[in-house]
Amino acid sequence: MEIRQATAGDIGEVKKLMDSLVVTRETPGWRFATTGFFEYSKSEEALRELLNPYFAVAESNGSIRGFSVSYEDIFFNDHYAGSEDCGIKLIQHDFKTDFLYLSTLGVLNPGSPASEGVANGLVDWSIAQARENGLKDIVTITCEAPFKNHRMVGFLRKKEFEKFGRVFPGNEIELGAYELAL
């Protein structure tokens, strides 16, 4: 498996993988799902706009097995300037500079032993890139209610991320905010 910076040519496969992981209130048994993107997806155009040195893919045998959309503080602040999103505001309040925002992490067949290796590889790659570029923290937000992304929360704890806050954007959704000090 190769972890590398994503290119425009990867976006179609990333979008398909992302869409396969979306959980909505219309998904049968959604309250019992343990992983996925709760009522969250992005268009190919939006994903293309996020291409930057921290957007990574895991590739094996010519296929995308996972992806990680991250960006550093300058890109984050430019991209979300004027945002009313309470999760974004929390990060902007608590972290001014020198951080990497882990926006989205998705892997093929979540829960399988292979997928854990892919997720570890992608996050380890992001940590190495952040350290190499002198960043001090990695921050992320994940859904905790009404759908709790148990796999992601457990994964973040294994990677030694610490919860530093929570926000309630509405529609009964609770997001947990996590930080890894580098």
Description:
This protein has 182 residues and is an alpha+beta fold. The protein has helices at 11-20, 44-49, 73-79, 86-94, 113-132, 150-158, and strands at 2-5, 22-23, 37-38, 56-60, 63-72, 99-107, 137-145, 162-170, 173-181. The strands form 2 sheets. A 7-stranded mixed sheet has the order 1-4-5-6-7-9-8, with helices on both faces. Strands 2-3 form a two-stranded parallel sheet. The radius of gyration is 15 Å and the shape is globular. The two termini are 25 Å apart. The mean pLDDT is 91.
Q: Which SSEs are present, and which pair or pack?
A:
Layout: E1 2-5, H1 11-20, E2 22-23, E3 37-38, H2 44-49, E4 56-60, E5 63-72, H3 73-79, H4 86-94, E6 99-107, H5 113-132, E7 137-145, H6 150-158, E8 162-170, E9 173-181
Parallel strand pairs: 2-3, 6-7
Antiparallel strand pairs: 1-4, 4-5, 5-6, 7-9, 8-9
Features:
alpha+beta, two-stranded parallel ribbon, 34% helix, 32% strand
Provide a brief overview of the structure.
34% of the residues lie in helices and 32% in strands. The protein has helices at residues 11-20, 44-49, 73-79, 86-94, 113-132, 150-158, and strands spanning 2-5, 22-23, 37-38, 56-60, 63-72, 99-107, 137-145, 162-170, 173-181. A 7-stranded mixed sheet has the order 1-4-5-6-7-9-8, sandwiched between helices.
Percent in helix = 25-40%
Quote the distance from N terminus to C terminus: 25 Å
Largest sheet: 7 strands, mixed
Average pLDDT, rounded to a whole number, is 91
**Rg from Cα:** 15 Å
Element order: H for helix, E for strand: EHEEHEEHHEHEHEE
Structural class by secondary-structure content: alpha+beta
Rough outline? globular
Low-confidence stretches: none
Write down how many β-strands occur, each being a DSSP E stretch of 2 or more residues. Answer: 9
Individual helix count? 6
Percent strand equals: 25-35%
